[in-house]
Fold this sequence. Notes:
The protein is mainly alpha-helical. The chain contains 5 helices and no strands. The protein has helices spanning 4-33, 37-63, 85-110, 114-143, 148-158. Bound molecules: fe (ii) ion (FE2) (2 copies). The site of one fe (ii) ion has 5 residues, from helix 3.
Amino acid sequence: MPAARFVEQLNTQIGHEFAAHQQYVACAVHYDLLTMPQMAAFFYRQAVEERDHAMMMVQYLVDCDEPVTIPSVPAPQSKFGDVVEPIRIALEQERRVADQINTLTAIAREENDFASDQFMQWFIKEQVEEIATMSDLLTVATRASHDIEAIEDYVAREQSGQPGDPTAPPIAGDDG
Ligand SMILES: [Fe+2]
Ligand SMILES: [Fe+2]
């Protein structure tokens, strides 16, 4: 049975993951309106991943018979000054989420909640990957901020989507 403190904090995290979903949809739409289909598709995919993270957390709480409260989320930033700003915001968001994931793991450990500690391990690895992806993209986009086709080419070549991760926790409502 998960520790009460962990359950409360995981419910909060579900809101952060849905907020990340909304932020990435806003980033995707920004690029879609600039007719940058590769960047738009990249952020639409990132958005779905964030939604999946939220639903993995929902599934964990349901599996543990713990209460789940789906929170409202603050509106994302929808106006951006250029092609680089959404990526800068995305990287900040991923770093913030990594801190939140670490805090959740620390709570599980403090409470000797070993199952929750193990549940968090996949998210720790995921944050390392997402920070690396956004950091690389920020470097490329900053370098090529006046050559959007170069950014599009990079995303098409290096970030065209990976196959599903078989080690990922189950996603609530996913019948696939
Ligand atoms: Fe996430
Ligand atoms: Fe993320």
